Every structure is written in C-alpha cells, then in structure tokens.
Amino acid sequence: MKHYVEEVGARVKVDEGIQVIEKLLLACYFHPGISTKELARRTFLPIPVAAAIKKELIREGALEQKNGVHCTKEANRWVERRCGYRGIDKALYLKLMEANINEAVRLPEMKVILEGLAEEFARRPQVNVQLDQSKCTPETSLRRAILCLKHHSLVGKKILCVGDDDLVSVSLGMLLQQLFPAMEVPQAQIDVVELDERFIRHIHEIADRAQLPIRCFPWDLRNPLPSEWHAQYDCFFTDPPYTLQGMSLFVSRGITALKQKKGLPVFLSFAHKSPDFMLAMNREFVRMGLTVHAAHQHFNQYEGAEMIANRSQMIILETTAVTDAQVKDAFCDALYTGEVKRTLRTYRCMQCGQEVFVGLQGEVATIEELKNQGCPGCKNDTFLMVEKRHLPPK
Fold first, then answer.
1. pLDDT tens-digit map of 54-80
2. What is the CB neighbour count within 10 angstroms for residue 17?
3. Are 283 and 232 in contact (CB under 8 A)?
4. 214-218 and 355-358: which strand pairing?
5. Are 295 and 383 in contact (CB under 8 A)?
6. What is the mean pLDDT of residues 272-297?
7. Contact criterion met (CB below 8 Å) for 240 and 249
8. Where are the domains of the chain?
9. Integer Cα distance of 279 and 162 in angstroms
10. 209 CB contacts (<8 Å, ≥6 apart)?
C-alpha cells in the first residue's frame, strides 16, 4: 500500500507539517466532490498550497478531479485501512465534526456515553488534594474526547494521557466504540501514565469490562519516561498541578513521548491565572518550542473545586520544528501547590550565577514572578533550582 502522505510531503513543502496532507485526504473521503477552495478552508491552508497538494495526490493516484475532488478507490481503501476509518459511522462522524463542542456533547448519540461515564465517574476514587487532583464532570471528559476527534487525533492514532484522574482515556474509548459500532476494538491505542494506583486500577477495570483500547502504566513523572515510550504518540492530554513547575514537568514528559513531527496537538487543561502567571507560562511554551493554537476559556468544569471557581481553560498547543522537552532529567523542584506554598527554594541564575530565594518568605514569592522580573543581577530569565527547604506549617 502506498505511503501517500510521506511521498507527497517529500515533494511539497508544507510548513504546517505533513499531517495536513492526511487531513486533506480525509476531507475528500468524507466530502466527495469537494472544491479546492473548500479543501483549503477545512485544512487552514492557502489555496495555492492546497492546490499543489491536490495536484501531487492526483499524480499519486489518490485523487481525481471530476465535478470536484474525489478519492480514488485505492485512496478510499488507504483511508479505511491505513488511517483506521474502516467501519466508522460516517453520519455520526460528520455530525460531530460539523457541530461546535457544546452542540456535539448534546447530540442524542452522545447520551449513552454520558450515561456510561456518569456511572463510572460515580465509582472513581476520592481525590487526593495533596496531588492537586480534582473531579471533572462527565460532560467535561467527553468534551475533551470530542475535541481530540475534531483535531484528527483520535481515529487510528496513539494517544497518551499524562495523568488521568479525569478518566479522559475512558471517554476516548467510549467515543471510539460509538463511532465504530460493528467493531469490537477500534483501531486506536490509548495509554495512561498515572502516579495514583487507585486510578490505574479503576481505569483498568473499566477498560477490561467494556473492552476499551486502553493500557495503564503506574509512573512517577518526576522520573524520566522509559526510552520505549519516547517518540511514540500522536497527541497527549494533561491536566497538571496548577503550578508553573507542574505544567512544565507534565508537558515536558508528554513532549518526550510525542512523535517528532510538526503540527501535533497537545491538550493542556490549566486554571485561569493572572496575566503575570500567563506571561511566565507562555515563556515556557516558547522555550519548549510549542505554539498556542487555541485557548478555550471555561472549557473544563469540576466538582467541588471552589479554589478555581469550578472551571479551567483548555489550551491547545502544537509542536514545531524546534519542539523539545524543558525537563529531561529527574525532577527535584517543588511540584504540587501545597509543596510550593510550604517551601523556600534557592534558584541560581544560569547566566551570572546569582542566587535568589523564592517562596512566601523569600525575596520573590513565585518562580513565575522571578522569571518575569529576570535576574536582579543580569535580567536573564533562566534559573536552576539548587536548594529546597520545607517551612513549618502555620
């Protein structure tokens, strides 16, 4: 079977990444007779670039131009076998793709998923506030799964959940089952790395009972991921501790697991923060070579999380040619909110070596504030944590 995406990608320079060629083929598969202008709109490409990709796919025997653009029989088989769309409920797929997220969750076909999720969520373990856990609603978990589908990162893909007390893996698996009613196990792989073994057991029990394509691995993300997990996944989800250190660590581990391609999505749930905090967080994104594709305010809803007003945002990041993990070795800094508030940490400037005490009783209250202000000596904004002291509780 031909490798349409790779072969066309080698001949047409696509700054957005070769995944957009697959998206263009999918648009032709689900919308036979589509115009070149509509192809460009659906793939967010300039019309000349969409036309150039179309021309090369015609040359490869994947597309044909007759009253619009159509997939050939060979390309239809490629989409179904290679991309994993064989047996999909096309009507439901198109409904979900055309509707906005709020409309999609309310579709009648989603009712059975929400009912199943409500039962599983009622049985999930109690949250451990020391690990910054909180309970998202079944609707929120399903919204995340539909968002993954809309970004062409669900069907036929390898997905990683970096921590999963929100049972996003279960929502992804149930959505796949609804999309592929005639298949026992749809073509996708969903993996979970999670520190809390209670959630590992709970997700494993659900996956085993419902025959969902989920694998669970107990892992402390303070430690680097094993090499066999590196460069394996097409996207990842994470809802990390709402500290700058927590975000940087969890996203870094996810980046390590992502395939080394441009344009892969990162689904990051994070609390709404102050402009200064967001500035520091965006600086971390730049350091990791990530770009912000979209930010959906109040996307996530939680039960009993009054500290964040029961809501958080969904930030969709995308990989670039220079994406690289910020944290590669073992992580020794304060991570969870409770740790950060009870520690006095010494950071050393990576440029001039000046040391600064960070904490509620230090020279600067938070690491994001220090990075925004820069080093007192040279204004550099990169620091190394060299010492951590736990303060007695009040």
1. 999 999 999 999 999 999 999 999 999
2. 18
3. no
4. unpaired
5. no
6. 94
7. yes
8. 4-81, 90-319, 342-390
9. 24
10. none
Mean pLDDT of 9-29: 91
Q: How many residues does the chain have?
A: 394
Q: Please answer whether residues 258 and 289 qualify as being in contact, where contact means their C-beta atoms are separated by less than 8 angstroms.
A: no
Topology of the domain covering 90-319: Rossmann fold (3.40.50)
Mean pLDDT of 45-62: 94
CATH class of 4-81: mainly alpha
Is 194 in a helix, a strand, or coil?
strand
Q: Please answer whether residues 193 and 217 qualify as being in contact, where contact means their C-beta atoms are separated by less than 8 angstroms.
A: yes
The type of residue at 171 is: S
pLDDT per residue as tens digits for the range 328-339: 999 887 776 666
**SS3 at position 347:** strand
Which pTM does this prediction carry? Answer: 0.86
Burial (CB < 10 A; 0-12, 13-18, 19+), residue 235, is buried
**Strand (E) or helix (H) holding 339:** helix 337-341
pLDDT at 24: 96
Specify the 3-state DSSP secondary structure of 1. Answer: coil
pLDDT at position 47 over 70 = yes
